[in-house]
């Protein structure tokens, strides 16, 4: 059985910080899985992978130290929109090596339901498993709470949950669930707002929180990385803006666990 590769699919961005964050996340996941990490632009943008050895138990490698004889996976990155390579290009480059595609998205909208399946089909790869998106998930809510505290939030302060937004109703449902998960984490109410697509918008909700009597208002950034959307939050009139979710051990474990579950299914099915 050939070790399934991990293809981490992210939203393309022109933000240097965003690209660096995805590269760092992929490297951290590779370390978590005990996989080799590579430097240089080729590693960041999903360069060609060498043929993989066989005999890998996808459920065995944990904590970055796979047992003796266990072959760790190779980790590649791909992008939908703006940047390349595309998931189809990376999957074709893997040739006959089975692959697990993990969408690095905080909600499942058009990219997850349309772009990723289309790219997988276009690759004509024979052995691909696609996992659920990263979010919503309690682990992400816990990280968001920590980011809020680091920004100065205290119990009793109003919280505005700022998501990029989507025209896809399924993505909006995911964001509402993520808002509820954060409310559970902080033990209080959380107001949902959108940065780019959808209503209400963040500045409006921040103003409403103040009008309702909140002395301090903080924005919880439901974004994965720094970029234009996060920069906009600093002009919304809040007392503080939490950092994006970013590279955090809980995010790394979340992606690694998504991979392990899907890779185990491929292995059990005898694919590869």
Question: Layout of SSEs?
Answer:
Layout: E1 5-11, H1 16-32, H2 41-44, E2 75-80, H3 87-94, E3 99-103, H4 110-123, E4 128-130, H5 138-150, E5 158-163, H6 169-186, E6 191-194, H7 202-211, E7 217-222, H8 228-233, E8 240-241, H9 249-268
Provide an overview of this structure:
The chain has helices at about 15-30, 40-45, 85-95, 110-125, 140-150, 170-185, 200-210, 230-235, 250-270, and strands spanning about 5-10, 75-80, 100-105, 130, 160-165, 190-195, 215-220, 240. The protein is of the alpha/beta class. Helix 6 (about 170-185) links the parallel strand 5 and strand 6. Helix 5 (about 140-150) crosses helix 6 (about 170-185). The radius of gyration is 19 Å and the shape is elongated. The termini are close together. Residues about 40-65 have low confidence and may be disordered.
State the total count of DSSP E strands.
8
Secondary-structure element order, N to C:
EHHEHEHEHEHEHEHEH
Decide which structural class fits the backbone.
alpha/beta
Specify the overall morphology: elongated
Compact overview of the structure:
The chain is built from nine helices and eight strands. The chain has 272 residues and is an alpha/beta fold.
Task: Quickly list its features.
9 helices, 8 strands, 40% helix, 272 residues, four-stranded parallel beta sheet, elongated, single chain
